[in-house]
Amino acid sequence: MNSAWDVRRLPSAEGKIFLVTGGNAGIGYFVSEQLAGTGATVVLGSRDAGKAEAAMGAIRSRVPGARLRHLQLDLADLGSLKASADALDMDRLDAVILNAGVLAQNVRGETKDGHELMFGTNHLGHFALVTYLLPLLAGGRVITVGSIAARYVRLDLDDLQTTRGYKPFPTYSRSKLAQMLFGFELDRRLRAAGSTTSSVLTHPGGALDSITPSRPPVWVRSTRDALLFGLPLSIFVQGKDHAAWPAVRAALDPSIQGGQLLGPRTLGVRGQPRLERVRHTIADPAVAARLWTASTTLTGVDPLP
What we know:
There is one protein chain. The protein is α/β, with parallel strands linked by helices. It has one domain (17-299): 3-Layer(aba) Sandwich (Rossmann fold). The protein has helices at 26-36, 49-62, 81-87, 117-133, 168-192, 223-233, 240-243, 245-252, 285-299; strands at residues 17-21, 41-46, 67-72, 95-98, 141-145, 198-202, 261-266, 270-276. The protein has an eight-stranded mixed sheet, with helices on both faces. The mean pLDDT is 94.
């Protein structure tokens, strides 16, 4: 582990190619901006071409000459994902950052394929996407952006779609737990197969809009919110620009290994990214294996058959 890592002095990644799902907004935007500053080519995966163009404009205003592309990507439509992967038209990727996600929805929704919206998008969409991207990732990394919320829930393997007792935040938390279980199980299976691709996990800690710097037109922070909420809460949590640091380090630091978890240094909610112990429900290989089997049934694909 590189103890001298400095998030404000990132190494050059000239010639490398990174795909960031949900790279046009929130934490994903800042992951894209920071990676673009290293000289890498950054592909922003997004459903909305207009929002992706706005994000790329915002990045270029801060990183002149940034190498950026938009990839049409709808994780809530499993049938579209192979075409999206093909549209990359590249012979390799150095990393994919699985960042996109649907946040807690007050009313239970469904994807185009009829899956519960958060589980279907956050987990199943990425599960299927990785299937199509793995041939491009030899020697590269699959980086899953999880959540500390995953620590406090358990999967109901008999009701992954939350057809009973739907509650927004627990359902969101379980979708993030599913992502993290998948990330660790993917690394175990990659190693068993002798693959040179690795799977790394990160989480952003606590991230608030009121502490996040403006990036017009993508995001403009309210002065009122910054004063009323941002300054007091910045003692405990951080903005989305800093919340991007674990994923950025996972993409760039050559000392990071498959199966490791990176999160913020201070109580797991803010600060420089560091390695964390893998524990709680995200560390259960038996549950992860059962989730993998269920996911292949639900998506019709298997990343490592």
